[in-house]
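Below: protein 1.
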Amino acid sequence: MQKLGNKRKWIPLIIYALANGLMFCCTAWGYFRQDKDLYVLLARGSAAVIYLNSALVLLTMSRVLVTRLKLGALSRYLALDKHISFHKVVGHVIFAMALVHTGAYLVKYLLSYPSLITPFHEFVNYSGLILVILITFIWLFAQPAYRHHNRFEYFYFSHFLIIPFILLLFFHAPKFAYYALVPCLIYGLDRLFRFKRMRKPLEILSAKTWPGSILELRLKRPPDFYYHPGDYGYLCIPKISQLQWHPFTLSSAPTEPNYISVHMKKFGKWTSQVHQLMETTSTSQQSPQAPYKAIPVYLDGPIGAPASSMMQADNVILIAAGIGITPFIAFLKTLMNTRSHHTTYRKVYLYWVSKSCDAFTWCLDFFAKLLTQHHPHFISIKLRSDEPAVFSADNQLAEPLFVNHPIQWITELKNIKSLHPLDKFTVFYCGPQGLSKILKPIVHKLGFIYKKENF
C-alpha cells in the first residue's frame, strides 16, 4: 500500500504533461488547418503552453490555499508537499516555451522581412520582446547559484517581476485572460489575506544565543495564530531590512499559548546581522526590562510544509541534519504535551546528524526530559556528530543518545522494517540535498513514504 501511495503521487505530473502536450498539439493543429507554416505552428503551440503554465505558476504559490488543501482529502491524491518543486517545473516550462515562441517568430521574420526592425513597430512584437526579457531575468535569478550562497536577494526581488510579466501578457495575448482570470483572482485574495496577517508587528520576548551559532528568538504569540508542527513563516526585521523576508520553521509547539519561537543558525549576511543586532541589544542598558521592545518583527505565516503532516502519520522516522531539527522539535514538544490526551502513534524514531557537537546543546535538556519523564517506550533518539561528544554534569542524561560510529542508513531502516513489518511508516527528512539523495532510494525500496523539507 505504501508503494502504491508513492506511485500515486506521479499521477498529477502525468496529467500535467499530457495537458501541456494536448494544448500544444491542438493549437498547432488549428493553425495547420489554416495552412500556416512550421514557424507559426511552433510559435502558437508554445504560446498556448505558456498561457496554461503562467496561470498554474500563480496557483502553486498561493501559499494559504496550498496550506489549507494539505489538511484536506485532496492531499491523498495531489503531491501538495511538492508544490514548490512543481512551481520550479512550471517555471522551466514557461522559460523553455518562451524561447521556442520567440525563436520561431524571429526565424520567420528573418525570412520574411529585409530588416528585423520592421516587425517591431507593432505592439505585439515589442511587448513580446519585453516579456522574454522579464522571464529570462526571473528564470536566471531563480537558479541555485542565486537562491543560496549569500545571493538570496537577487532571487527574491527578481521574482516580483512576475507581476509586470502577467499584466503585460494580458495585453500581449488577450486569449490569456481565459486561462488566468480565476488563478489571478485566487492569488490576489491569497496575497491580501497574507498581507492582512503579516502587517501586525510581533514583540520579541527573548533572544538567546546557543553554542553552534544558533539564535533562539521567542516572539509574542498573537491570539488568533494557529499552526501545526512543521509549519514555517517568513520573518522580516525592518531594523535590518524592510524588504527582506526569510523563511524559518516554527520550532515551538502549537500547544504553547504565549509565544512562538524560531531557531536561526548564523549563515549568510542577513542572519549574521540578526545575531549581531540581538547581541548588541541585549548588552544595552537603555531598557533592561524589555531590551527588544524597539525591534519589531513581522511574520508572514503560518505556511504548511511537508513536515506539517507529521501529526497525521501513523508511525514516523524523523531524520535531521544540522539546523534541520527544528520542525521535529516542534513535533516532539507537541507529542509531549498531548500524549496523555490522545494519539495514535506506536513508534517515533529520531536521527539527528551534525558536523559539530555544539549543535545539539539547545535540545539536550529537552531530550532528557522527554525520555525520562514521559515516553521512553515509544520514542527512540540517536544523535551523531563528526566531533567527539563531551558531556557536562548538566547533560549526562543525554550521553546514551550519542552513537560513536557513522549511521548506516540502510541497516537502520531495515532494522525498523523488521521490527515493525506490518506497520505503516513515513520518513520525514530536513537537511541538505546530499543526504536526501542517499535516503530517498532506500526509503522507497523499503516501502516507506518519504517526505523531504525544502532546506
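Below: protein 2.
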Amino acid sequence: MVGVEIGKCDMCETESVPVNRKYYHYNIKCECCNGKDDPHFEIVRYCKTCRPKPPSKVVAVISPNVGEELDLTKLKQMRISKKMSIMELAGKVGVSRTTIYAIESGRKEAMYCTVVKIIKALGYEMSVFEKLV
C-alpha cells in the first residue's frame, strides 16, 4: 500500500490533511543545474476539495550564504558591505544606476539574468531556488 502524505494544502491552507502533489516545471538554465533541461520546479500540495493552480509569479530566491535567503531589497546592504558604489555595480552589471537603485529599493522587479549578474558582480556564489508568491 502506498503511503498518503499528510500536510498543509497550499491552496486553502488547511493543515494536517491528506494532500496530493502537482509539479510545475520551469525552463530556467543556470549554473546550479549545469545546463540540464528543466531542472527547476515548484511543488504545489493540494487537498481533495481544492484544485491546484499554476503559480502566478515565480521569484528567484538567491542564497549568498548557506541557509540564508536573500530578499532583493538586501542588495544595498550587500553592495555597501563590499564597499561598492551604485555606479560601480551598474557598470559591472551593464545596467543604469537608476535600475540598481530601483531594484535595491524594491520599486522595480529585477529580471532573473540581472539578479544573477548583480550577485556575481558582488562576489557571491549562487544558489537559486524558485518559490511561489
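DSSP finds four helices and seven strands in the chain.
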